[in-house]
């Protein structure tokens, strides 16, 4: 039986005056699936994620989460969604515990204190619970950001370069936690990254964007060979430099 579609994006567009940042894209992400959203800087990845989050209003098209239209039912949909990115800093003057507790309140998490304690343990943050976020290392802050992102046990998790600038050991730990979360909860994950080895290890499927359009999609392990490239990095470079050669 096919897995339930958690996220459905249909003919989504975002126009900024003369620039079309996202140009008529459609895709879906199923329960338990991790999908990589790839492309060079300025391809439209973050704009797409911000529209899915409801931060930006699309110029055209629609976003459905759990069969609910985001525009019509944003409050209910938002409770099933969360987000993490290295650049999305949490309030630096609050402690680790305070950050998790406040975000838990915002999401209406039940048995919140117990949930916070579980996350502190799962993300190796217990010894930092009373530490102000501004004093955390980048690795500690990344673990907190991800803990915040799953505090409401979202069925849609959006990750914008969650391991950027992290050392290989911490990045591997973060990747494994996300893989485990998707498998255990059957959540859908949409993940942007410029680390092609990471994408091959983590993602079930990839979507290549360039100039706001989706050029390619498929299994990251087999897609390069289908286009005569030796690996995903070579395919990424070719699609970024010569997008018209992949245009359908």
Automatic annotation (TrEMBL):
Residues covered by the ABC transporter domain: 7-236
PROSITE patterns (alphabetical): ABC_TRANSPORTER_1, ABC_TRANSPORTER_2
Source species, domain of life: Bacteria
Keyword ATP-binding tagged: yes
Keywords of the record: ATP-binding, Nucleotide-binding, Transport
GO molecular function, one term: ATP binding
Family statement: Belongs to the ABC transporter superfamily.
Protein name: ABC transporter ATP-binding protein
